[in-house]
Design goal:
Length: 164
């Protein structure tokens, strides 16, 4: 009778270890940061830039969509640059200090950052440099089209803030 109890206990322990063993050596997916949207994210200086993407229907002029979090207590000047036809195009904007709240550009009634001369067809990637507080980082930003329902109406308008 005691043998049955020992065998049943050993079997229960074996089943428990066998079904839970994968979690002992597998990394947890929830601890790995990732971009959960079509856009990309980057930290530059004290700024957290999120969901960077460019909406362009013609591959020449694009609307840069992004969100920026600035918790420094002071406004930060963000420089945005890219290469167009061998020439560096550079512009800047102020990112207000907003205590970890995100300030957005490019959609709805928000200010739009229009990039002229991107020379990147929708579906491609444009290399864009961001500089804040003396730190510069470069990221490949996806260029998408407004033909997708979620980006309808976000194509660039005629006003150009940053262009060649």
């Amino acid at each position: 009778m005691k043998v049955r109890i020992v065998v049943a206990a050993a079997l229960a322990v074996g089943v428990a270890l066998g079904t839970a063993g994968c979690n002992l050596i597998q990394p947890q997916a929830t601890t790995t940061p990732y971009d959960a949207s079509d856009g990309v994210g980057i930290n530059v200086g004290d700024l957290e830039l999120r969901n960077l993407m460019i909406i362009s229907d013609n591959g020449e002029t694009g609307n840069l969509l992004m969100g920026a979090a600035n918790s420094t207590g002071v406004d930060v000047e963000l420089h945005i640059g890219f290469v167009s036809g061998g020439t560096v195009v550079d512009g800047h904007l102020e990112v207000p200090s907003n205590d970890k709240q995100v300030t957005s550009w490019g959609s709805g009634s928000e200010d739009r950052i229009i990039l002229g001369g991107i020379n990147t067809i929708p579906g491609g990637l444009l290399e864009v440099a961001f500089e804040a507080n003396g730190e510069t980082k470069t990221v490949l930003v996806p260029v998408l089209t407004s033909a997708q329902p979620e980006y309808e109406g976000l194509e660039p308008k005629k006003v150009t803030k940053i262009s060649k």
